[in-house]
Design brief:
The complex is a heterodimer of chains A (279) and B (284). Chain A is mainly α and 279 residues long. Helix content of chain A is 76%, strand content 1%. Chain A has a two-stranded antiparallel sheet with strand order 1-2. The chains are: A mainly alpha (279), B mainly alpha (284). The interface between A and B is large, with 82 and 86 residues.
């Protein structure tokens, strides 16, 4: 028996819709679950005090600092490299074999799992370069990890700057470098900010690469060579070693809120960018 | 003078542009330098096919972990790929544009949630459910596959939506003009045209599932043993590295780096397949 096309359409749309709803339900459930269990734990004291008794009591202040410093350091390193690569790919060259190799390398780097970055950081930065488990080693490792994200988003941002802008600038006697610096980069800025926020989000939620390079010492760092513990690592240790479920939920809530905030800023800046371009 | 400044800028940018490929090479070289001599010395065949991993007795076989990684990944794709592709089709073909513009970023937020949080939810919510209703220890292949299946959804949905969105509207209109229903147009025309992009999204999702570490450690149970059912606890390649690395020295440590080499090779193969699929789309 053949089902008429009208009915297969209804059935198919129903099934596809159900799958989409299921995905959305999972998203809502995860966020609601973490916030519902975690937010009651989050108080001002929890946010502003140091952990006590391995994290069974006390707060997460040093981890918040770690979760700020480490991504900022990684961004400070990855941003110039990423934007510079994008500028070269978009402004200084046509499609050649070299650009294809660079793009291939970027794509491969984007696909490498974080545990491999962790192993590499451990051998190269921590041991061979004698940095020890430190803010610096962690920052360098994360910088390499988010480099592809920054390159890709910056490239999109640069490509969306209309060619007329470049032509006008060049016809007024500006060199290519002056055009890039004064005309192209300022116009691509909101798009670059999107990449920065996405990279930041990835750094904040990273665990495997951080644990092997920045270590797990739950103290305020006083120099770049001190080990730090980020919120994600702290949460992992609390949850896996069963130290305190309550504090784990609290840390998770702060972590998820931070990541949501960063990602929403990324989308907001991207939309502002697209709207401005569309005008 | 100005000319030379411009030339200098060009060379500086060229040098910077090589940073990504240089990092990639550096990573490959150092992981291989630590792990490859061990593989040669221990024997690649013995290393890859023995299921016996006992560092105290200097026996290092990763077969059980390779099988574990494969099972967990396959399970994740069985859950994630149909759900993700279905979601992508629904969002791009059967939902008004403004609605999709809200839902797609919301689903991409799933990608931003830290993997440790997924692992924790698997541990606290999913594992007890499976333990109580299906038996077994709860932390097992099935739990890990379900959590990873959810984790790969954003990757699959967002790349598939882009691939479906890139199919020219004239294809749909042509099919509809021939009297096809919307679903027939999607199934017979749009999906055929977007096939390589969708395949690439699935392969990239697979890469993410193979490489995931922290979430898997929290939900897979971590016993080194060949799994016989989906309710058996397993330890994946990634989990093994992360669990044993901090305490490993000497040969044991080299063996862990060798595990890293195996993982690196698997990921590179998956990446190349995904890129080949994407390029085929570009070449058309």
């Amino acid at each position: 028996m053949r089902i008429p096309p009208r009915h297969t359409q209804t059935i198919a749309v129903g099934l596809l819709g159900a799958a989409t709803l299921l995905t959305l339900a999972v998203l809502v459930f995860i966020i609601a679950f973490v916030l519902e269990k975690g937010l009651p734990v989050v108080t001002w004291t929890f946010l502003s005090s140091a952990p006590e008794d391995m994290g069974r009591a006390g707060g997460i202040f040093p981890m918040i600092v770690g979760s700020l410093l480490l991504p900022l350091l990684a961004l400070a390193l990855a941003l110039p490299l990423g934007v510079g690569s994008a500028v070269y790919l978009c402004e200084y060259t046509r499609e050649t074999r070299l650009t294809r190799v660079i793009r291939f390398g970027t794509d491969c780097l984007a696909g490498i799992p974080s545990i491999i970055f962790g192993l590499f950081g451990l051998v190269f930065f921590v041991e061979i370069l004698h940095m020890g488990w430190s803010l610096l080693a962690g920052g360098l490792t994360l910088a390499i990890m988010i480099l592809p994200t920054i390159i890709r988003t910056s490239e999109e941002a640069l490509r969306s700057v209309p060619n007329a802008y470049r032509e006008v600038s060049c016809s007024m006697g500006a060199t290519r470098w002056e055009t890039v610096r004064r005309v192209v980069l300022p116009n691509a800025l909101p798009g670059i900010v999107t990449g920065v926020m996405l990279g930041l989000g990835r750094c904040i939620s990273e665990t495997a690469a951080v644990i092997f390079t920045a270590g797990t010492v739950a103290q305020m760092p006083t120099s770049a060579f001190d080990s730090v513990r980020t919120m994600a690592v702290h949460f992992y240790i609390l949850a896996r070693e069963g130290l305190s479920t309550e504090n784990a939920y609290g840390t998770a809530a702060v972590l998820v809120l931070a990541v949501l905030l960063v990602n929403l800023t990324a989308y907001w800046s991207m939309h502002a960018f697209i709207r401005r371009r569309a005008r | 003078m100005r000319f030379s400044a411009d030339k200098t800028a060009q060379y500086v940018f060229l040098a910077i542009a090589c940073s990504a490929i240089a990092s990639l090479l550096l990573i490959a070289v150092f992981i291989c330098k630590e792990g490859f001599p061990f593989i040669l010395q221990y024997g690649p065949w013995r290393f890859l096919t023995s299921a016996d991993w006992q560092p105290q007795e200097n026996t290092y076989g990763v077969a059980a972990m390779i099988v574990a990684s494969l099972c967990v990944t396959a399970g994740a794709m069985l859950i994630g790929a149909p759900l993700g592709v279905a979601g992508a089709i629904f969002l791009s073909e059967f939902v008004p544009k403004p609605v999709m513009r809200v839902i797609k970023p919301a689903i991409e937020l799933l990608a931003g949630i830290p993997s440790v949080v997924y692992g924790f939810i698997g541990m606290m919510v999913l594992a007890p459910l499976i333990r109580n209703h299906l038996g077994g220890p709860g932390l097992c292949v099935l739990t890990a596959a379900m959590i990873l299946g959810i984790m790969v959804l954003p990757t699959i949905i967002s790349i598939s939506v882009d691939a479906i969105g890139a199919v020219p509207n004239s294809y749909r209109e042509g099919a509809l003009a021939l009297g096809a229903t919307r679903w027939q147009a999607v199934r017979m025309v749009v999906l055929k045209a977007a096939r390589s992009g969708i395949i690439a999204s699935i392969i990239l999702g697979m890469g993410r599932a193979v490489g995931e570490t922290m979430a898997v450690i929290m939900v897979a149970g971590n016993t080194i043993r060949m799994p016989h059912s989906v309710l058996d606890p397993v330890r994946t390649l990634t989990a093994n590295i992360a669990i044993e690395m901090s305490a490993a020295t000497g040969l044991h440590r080299q063996a862990l780096f060798a595990t890293g080499v195996v993982l690196f090779v698997v990921i590179m193969i998956l990446n190349s397949l995904a890129m080949a699929a994407m390029n085929r789309k570009g070449g058309r």
